[in-house]
């Protein structure tokens, strides 16, 4: 089952193609065999009429004239002779033979004794594989029930079987003509199937007429031609249905893409609501869902922003009021409390804004950015080693990306023991920036949770080092607005790797 | 001499607090709670500086700022509550001379006020904060605090290097001592063996594709310091 295509597109296409091809193959086969039967029937009646005609003519002629007439009538495709004795068919006649006999009897206006000794049907031959045995020599025609053990060519007159009824005065000369004729036939067209009918009839005076009628080959076409037709059909059916099925399944693929992209970017354009009814309905439902989620999140963001804004006025007032208090420890502590509040509001607003599009995208030298952020972080006391460079600038929102990187480095410095490695890596179609620390690490289950806003893992370390609990949330929101992402992984040998990926063919949302 | 400041804000408490703060520091302070009141005060008094809140009921701060700029050269300091990039940039485009986010630190406000008043006292035609310095195909963006090369690619700068380059570009073709540069870059005094500035200058040269030779952009003046050898254009 693993060879079956996994996609809906592939499966529908496969089913369609196989079904249509099977139907076509059956159709072609039926048509061809019908045609062949029809052709055989036609040829059979032609042979019967011809033989009946010969019998009627020879009936009326006197013996002397007969020899002359036999020579004159002995032309392809019918070879006749009156020299051979009557033979006894060993097997019961086949349907073909019966109908032939009936047919001849109808044409001749007297009862006539007639028998079919052999009907040899041509077998379709394959040209080169030799899997079919070569056709037997025509004088040893085969397989057919009406076959005679030893068909003429030249039965010596003395060897005539007792059953043969007599008057074979003329049967003095052996006549090997038919054999020669068939031999010639084979020599000229060695690859064409040969078919013929051998029979005997008694003329009204008892003379035995032996005839061999060469049936033209059956019209069943060679398998190559059939295969060619099937191939053309198959290709056109495959192309057409590929186009049609692609058109049908395309909206489904877009729906899947949209659902995947939703988590990253709520602002993505709505799906086109066209296509087959069911799919259009799904697209409409999806668009509605996207709108609802966006509205819901917007409302929450608005509320949070409003609170943050409103807090700014009291903080400003408090700061002005503090100016009236004499310098001292109390005032310093209150000032630093206010600064902390200010920063919390600042990062909340920054978080709410992180994915927004207010900043214009510009081309930026990532190497210089990493170097600058690293340099700034070293100034405030951290050991940071920088590795690697990337080629070519990228189109990004410079301030936002700087914030993103600063947050990652700040996190590593704060929780990671201050010993940090930052690496720039060129990946296929993307740039990766890794920030590796040697801190106590984060339990595996919390690796995703720390990206949620205001979530801090319950370790005493995190508590005492402070931080707004928004750093990673902001970093991820910024990365996602650049079609990238930030993820955390445990670092080999202890610590955490924060990995920022930015696709090269960036879609800045 | 006593400068007159007009404070336009809709919050009564804040107006009162600002009034007291500036009064203590020997400024004459006028108050207005909105647009109409502001025009009234401006008609009646000689005002040296307007501190204008962006978020005002009725006619908003941006509109007032634009109208005020159209009719007079009185310097304007915008107070923006949103802290949004857009407001800041739009505020400057509407003709404000400077801006400050709420919640500001009072000392910071005082410093800005002094700065604006000094610049307007010097009678500078272009009173406003330059937003970018252009030199030798480079642009130093003073708002975003980064460098932009001739192809428009942004080259980020560490804070210290930015401040050094800013000082150099604000004083083109003037020698600046290591002490002066160290002062802006980190606020420290340079010791006799302090190589910090030399390291930063060499990094800056690398970023500016400057080999330090004869055609150098940042020239070393032996035993004195450094200078930026270029014409610098201020753009607002």
Task: Tell me what you see in this structure.
The complex is a heterodimer of chains A (509) and B (236). Chain A is of the alpha+beta class. Chain A folds into 3 domains: 208 residues; 74 residues; 147 residues, Heat Shock Protein 90 (2-Layer Sandwich). Helices cover 49% and strands 14% of the residues of chain A. In chain A, strand 10 and strand 11 form a beta hairpin. In chain A, helix 1 packs antiparallel against helix 5 and helix 7 packs parallel to helix 11. By secondary structure, chain B is an alpha/beta fold. Chain B folds into 2 domains: 118 residues, 3-Layer(aba) Sandwich (Rossmann fold); 104 residues, Winged helix-like DNA-binding domain superfamily/Winged helix DNA-binding domain (Arc Repressor Mutant, subunit A, Orthogonal Bundle). Helix content of chain B is 39%, strand content 22%. Chain B contains 8 helices and 13 strands. In chain B, the strands form 3 sheets. In chain B, strands 2-1-3-4-5 form a 5-stranded parallel sheet, sandwiched between helices. In chain B, helix 6 crosses helix 7. The longest helix of chain B is centred in the middle third of the chain and has 16 residues. The radius of gyration of chain B is 21 Å and the shape is elongated. The two termini of chain B are 29 Å apart. In chain B, 31% of the residues are buried. The model of chain B has no long low-confidence stretch (mean pLDDT 84). Chains A and B meet through helix 6, helix 7, strand 5, helix 8 and helix 9 of A and helix 1, strand 9 and helix 6 of B.
Largest sheet of chain A: 5 strands, mixed
Shape of chain B: elongated
What structural class do you assign from the helix and strand content of chain A? alpha+beta
Shape of chain A: rod-shaped
What spatial order of strands do you see in the largest sheet of chain B?
2-1-3-4-5
Count of strand segments of chain B: 13
Separation, N- and C-terminal Cα atoms of chain A:
42 Å
Could you say how many structural domains of chain A there are in total? 3
Provide the structure class of chain B. alpha/beta
Name the biggest interface: A-B, 34 and 35 residues
What percentage of the residues of chain A does DSSP assign to strands (E)? Answer: 5-15%
Helical segment count of chain A: 11
Order of helices and strands of chain A: HHEHEHEEHHHEHEEHEEHHEE
């Amino acid at each position: 089952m693993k060879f079956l295509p996994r996609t809906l597109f592939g499966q529908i296409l496969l089913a369609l193609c196989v079904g249509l091809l099977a139907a076509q193959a059956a159709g072609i086969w039926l048509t061809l065999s019908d045609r062949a039967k029809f052709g055989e029937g036609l040829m059979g009646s032609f042979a019967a009429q011809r033989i009946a005609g010969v019998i009627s003519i020879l009936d009326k002629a006197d013996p002397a004239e007969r020899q002359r007439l036999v020579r004159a009538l002995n032309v392809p495709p019918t070879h006749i002779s009156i020299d051979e004795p009557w033979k006894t068919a060993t097997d019961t006649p086949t349907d073909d033979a019966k109908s032939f006999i009936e047919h001849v009897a109808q044409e001749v206006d007297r009862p006539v004794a007639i028998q079919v000794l052999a009907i040899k049907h041509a077998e379709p031959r394959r040209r080169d594989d030799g899997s079919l045995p070569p056709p037997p020599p025509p004088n040893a025609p085969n397989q057919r029930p009406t076959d005679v053990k030893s068909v003429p060519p030249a039965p010596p007159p003395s060897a005539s079987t007792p059953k043969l009824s007599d008057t074979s005065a003329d049967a003095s000369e052996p006549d090997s003509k038919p054999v020669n004729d068939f031999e010639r036939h084979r020599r000229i067209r060695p690859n064409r199937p040969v078919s013929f009918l051998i029979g005997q009839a008694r003329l009204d005076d008892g003379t035995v007429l032996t005839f061999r009628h060469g049936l033209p080959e059956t019209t069943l076409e060679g398998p190559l031609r059939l295969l060619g037709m099937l191939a053309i059909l198959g290709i056109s059916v495959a192309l057409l249905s590929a186009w049609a099925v692609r058109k049908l399944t395309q909206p489904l693929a877009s729906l899947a893409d949209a659902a995947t992209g939703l988590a990253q970017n709520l602002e993505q354009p709505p799906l086109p609501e066209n296509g087959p009814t069911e799919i259009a309905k799904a697209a409409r439902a999806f668009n509605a869902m996207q709108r609802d989620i966006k509205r819901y999140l917007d409302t929450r963001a608005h509320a949070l922003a409003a609170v943050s804004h409103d807090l700014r006025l009291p903080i400003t007032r408090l700061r002005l009021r503090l100016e009236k208090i004499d310098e001292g420890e109390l005032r310093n502590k209150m000032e630093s409390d206010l600064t902390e509040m200010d920063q919390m509001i600042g990062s909340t607003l920054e978080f709410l804004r992180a994915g927004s599009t207010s900043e214009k995208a510009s081309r930026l030298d990532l190497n210089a950015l990493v170097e600058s952020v690293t340099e700034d972080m070293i100034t405030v006391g951290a050991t940071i080693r920088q590795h690697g460079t990337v080629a070519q600038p990228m189109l990004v929102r410079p301030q936002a990306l700087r914030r993103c990187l600063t947050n990652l480095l700040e996190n590593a410095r704060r929780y990671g023991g201050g010993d940090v490695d930052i690496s720039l890596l060129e990946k296929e179609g993307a740039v990766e920036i890794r920030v590796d620390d040697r801190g106590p690490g984060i339990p595996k289950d919390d690796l995703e949770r720390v990206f949620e806003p205001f979530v801090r893992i319950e370790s005493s370390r995190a508590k005492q080092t402070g931080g707004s609990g928004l750093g990673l949330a902001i970093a991820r929101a910024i990365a996602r607005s650049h079609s990238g992402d930030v993820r955390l992984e445990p670092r080999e040998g202890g610590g955490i790797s924060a990995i920022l990926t930015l696709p090269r063919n960036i879609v800045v949302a | 001499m006593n400068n007159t400041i007009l404070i336009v804000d809709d919050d009564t408490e804040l107006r009162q607090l600002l009034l007291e703060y500036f009064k203590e520091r020997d400024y004459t302070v006028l108050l207005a709670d909105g647009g109409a009141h502001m025009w009234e005060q401006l008609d009646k008094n000689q005002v040296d500086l307007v501190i204008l809140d962006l978020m005002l009921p009725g006619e908003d701060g941006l509109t007032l700022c634009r109208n005020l700029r159209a009719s007079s050269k009185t310097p304007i300091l915008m107070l923006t509550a949103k802290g949004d990039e857009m407001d800041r940039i739009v505020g400057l485009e509407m003709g404000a001379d400077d801006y400050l986010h709420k919640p500001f630190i009072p000392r910071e406000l005082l410093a800005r006020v002094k700065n604006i008043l000094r610049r307007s006292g010097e009678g500078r035609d272009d009173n406003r904060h330059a937003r970018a310095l252009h030199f030798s195909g480079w642009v130093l963006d003073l708002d975003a605090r980064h460098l932009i090369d001739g192809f428009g690619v942004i080259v980020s700068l560490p804070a210290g290097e930015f401040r050094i380059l800013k000082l150099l570009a604000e004083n083109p073709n003037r020698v600046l001592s290591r002490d002066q540069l160290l002062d802006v870059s980190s606020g420290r005094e340079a010791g006799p063996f302090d190589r910090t500035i030399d390291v930063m200058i060499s990094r800056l040269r690398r970023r500016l594709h400057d080999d330090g030779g004869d055609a150098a952009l940042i020239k070393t003046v032996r035993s004195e310091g450094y200078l930026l050898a270029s014409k610098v254009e201020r753009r607002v």
